[in-house]
Amino acid sequence: INIKNLSKVFRTEEVQTAALNAIALQINEGDFISVMGPSGCGKSTLLNIIGLLDSGTEGSYQLLEQEIIGMKENDKARLRKQHIGFIFQNFNLIDELSVYDNIELPLIYNNVASAERKKRVETIAERLSLGHRLKHYPQQLSGGQQQRVAVARALITNPKIILADEPTGNLDSKNGNEVMELLTDLHANGATILMVTHSDYDASFSQKTIYMKDGAILNEKQNARNVDVL
Ligand code: ADP
Ligand code: ADP
Q1: Which atom of ligand 2 is closest in space to residue 142's alpha carbon?
Q2: Strand order in the sheet with 16-26
């Protein structure tokens, strides 16, 4: 991920909001980076642009060596489906679909054959201790279980990049810790992770924390957990 001079202005009838202001950011394969800063400073906007859910107003953005600015929506959607997994604070599960169907959805979007889909859903459900929950519906699960379903759905396509927007925001500390340990595992297995958080504790799991204010990056800090002590 290579971002230069990225700005984003939201225009509504009465107001213009400069949500991002000349952001420069480089994220390399295998990085685990957290983003912190006060409410309204542009964290989610940045994550959404990186995840191809929104576009910048100005600047350049290269993802997997492709220029995103000016790319057709279809091509962006294909890149997003193939390479990016999202985890949200409110889980964003579909209440009308079972756990199985929620997890399977990205595979359907990616035209994966049904026998292969079944195999992959069952494998990831076991890995996330959801094997006995596949026929349940989201509302029948605890918050921690719902977030595990959301993580399973984000991972089912083996995305190169995982974008997490306050993934523990609605969880108690035990379930929050489980999600952080899961992200740490994924990182150890080569995933690139960008996580927005309000929690210093969660941020300490990442290699580097970026602090934002008023749409800009103020500074960054390396996190001690990753200091090589050999
Ligand atoms: P954060 O995630 O750091 O809380 P956001 O990225 O959500 O901040 O928002 C950054 C700024 O952009 C805020 O001032 C917010 O009100 C504004 N904003 C975000 N989304 C929209 C939108 N769709 N329309 C208008 N303004 C928006
Ligand atoms: P939490 O500690 O997150 O509030 P809950 O009390 O919601 O957890 O759930 C405790 C356990 O009971 C969980 O394993 C959850 O899956 C199960 N459970 C809760 N509601 C239902 C339900 N309506 N049907 C089946 N299982 C449920």
Answers
A1: 3
A2: 16-26, 2-11, 58-63, 66-67
